[in-house]
Amino acid sequence: MTRHPLRRKRARLTPSTRRGFTLVSMIVAIILLAVGLSSLASANASTITLQTLAQNRTNAIAIGRSYLEQVRTRDPWLVETESSVRLGAEGTPDASGPYVRTMTVTETRQNLVKIDVTIDYPRASTPVVLTTLLFRGNGLSGAQ
Question: What pairs with residue 135 in β-bridges?
Fold first, then answer.
């Protein structure tokens, strides 16, 4: 009885010449996959955090600009420093709102005031500060 030629060839294969995966190569692949997935998850979490921070900052800027426009329509002689007010995302007063608006009025010259509107927003390292100058008439042009 003779053996089949392919069987003899298989019998001569050593473990190093056999095809397939070893336990060590599988462990290395799993570790690389785990590192890759954890870095993707970390990048995704950072992206979401930064996106939320940017949205909060955008809302704060919009609230500040809107309020500055309201202040500029007032009588310049009656504009004064205001205490802090809590606001909702729409800029309306809300006792539990996440935004805090403060307005500071500083007289820079006799007929010129500097108005700083500061908006603190959630997770902010520094608040948004918007500044404008408001001219007070000198009485000669009909404005008081």
Answer: 112
Whole-number Å distance between alpha carbons of 105 and 26? 68
Those residues with Cβ within 8 angstroms of residue 138's Cβ, 6 or more apart along the chain or in another chain: 110, 111
Q: Cβ(102)–Cβ(92) under 8 Å? A: no
Return the ∠ at Cα 97 (arms to 122 and 50), rounded to 5°. Answer: 20
Amino acid at 26: M
From residue 125, give the alpha-carbon distance in Å to each of 15, 87, 140.
Answer: 61, 19, 46
Q: What Å distances lie between residue 34 and 4, 46, 107, 112, CA to CA?
A: 46, 18, 61, 62
Q: pTM here?
A: 0.70
In tens, the pLDDT along 37-66 reads 999 999 999 999 999 999 999 999 999 999
Give tens-digit pLDDT for 97-140.
999 999 999 999 888 999 999 999 998 889 999 999 999 876 55
